[in-house]
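I hope you will forgive my troubling you with a question about protein structure. The matter concerns a single protein, recorded as an amino acid sequence and a row of backbone structure tokens. Please examine both parts with care and let me know of anything in them that strikes you as inconsistent. Here, with my thanks, is the record as I have it:
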Amino acid sequence: MATASSRHFLQIPGPTNVPDRVLRAIDRATIDHRGPEFARLGKEVLSGLQRVFKTRQPVIIYPASGTGAWEAALANTLSPGDRVLMFETGHFATLWREMAERLGLAVDFVPGDWRHGVDPAAVEDKLRADAQRRFRAICVVHNETSTGVTTRVAELRAAIDRVGHPALLLVDTISSLASMDYRHDEWRVDVTVAGSQKGLMLPPGLSFNAVSEQALSASRSGGLNRSYWDWGAMLRANEGGFFPSTPATNLLYGLREALAMLEEEGLENVFRRHARHAEATRRAAKAWDLEVNCADEREHSASLTAIRMPAGHDADRLRSLILERFDMSLGQALGKQKGQLFRIGHLGAFNDLLLCGTLSGVEMGLGLAGVPHRPGGVAAALQGATNAGLSKSAGLGPALVVNTVIVLIGTIGLWAAMGAKTTFFPTGESWTLYLGGLFGFVIVASLAFVFPKIGAAYDVALMVGGQCVAALVVDHFGLMGMPRDPLTIQRVVGVALVAAGAVVMRV
């Protein structure tokens, strides 16, 4: 039995761990929701949400779970009997379909295997076959929380545009917003649905609709019967920073703090952090010789990883054992996948050490449960994390290019100076060694200052490798005025040792 000596490890894909900063922000006295202080709060969070959704259009906040935001999206844009195109990507896509049918909508539900996202080609085919333009909306889940599979929304928009179909695009981002790259305006999404309890690092209780002008027009001209979910009343009150009914004031305090945390880290850095943790988790699964549920490399979720169990082994038994022994909760399989997989949530307020602890708990649990697997998943995740510059790295990208250029320039300068040694350094070979060490130190120190997020192993490999190649070329061809020198290898070794020392100092 686990000893409750610390906070419970909540590694389900939502609700997620709430950071202390957010908890402290929520723990404030409630204020008058009709007063000027609240108006400032309301305007601040509404504006901050626009930056997270990457939109200039309105974002509407409801005191509700994500299910409420589903209903608001449908009720404001569609009328009874309207045809809706939906796709079976997992449990939550299925639940959204059930809601649409209960609301009186005619749903064309495309079956799926719960291991793939929505196929853009299938969307295009369906829309081309709809010559009478009867589909009024297309509803998709961006990140299917039950399966760990994403849908490529930008490609869906391109497919819709190729056909020129007027259907509205409604997207559920409940487990992807603020964890994965999402662009409401750029992808021309009409309604984006989201919730507070995942990437936004809040407790459950708030949900959101980001709405386009086309969606607002549809809402003004039609829609299902609605009262609480009506966008019009919300938007009129929001102009002054208020809400038409009593808001969840303390959750809005927390939302303001969560938005500040996201902006401090930078959304792009947030996305990269989530992607690194997801990649490390998949490396662990591969090392364990277990299968990840997502079957398309382009569609891996950055918010969670669903791992399939070997035949004859029950995922719920494994989860129960890990909870009992290590006080850690993993996500259960839902719907028709029940018992077949477990889900590791790595979204929201999640860092490298939490990832290591989570994967260690899973690996120990696999052993205790007698699940066939190879050991070493945690080590594989750590190795992959180190190579990827996991600890707050912004990724290699442009920094890699600049890093390479700096090292090559330093190498050329080093050997140019060595070529002129007989003129400037009459003492000869020892000055060459010192100069090489100086250049090595300056290069590495500069990189450490300018690009502290690039791994030292890359620096030393590229720098020493470049210097060795330059040394051999210069010596072999007698370039830069240098005679062919039998001491070249000694010089290279000396430079490498001094450069390696500089790297050690950097680390």
In short: Residues 397-419 form the longest helix (23 residues). The first strand starts at residue 9 and ends at 11.
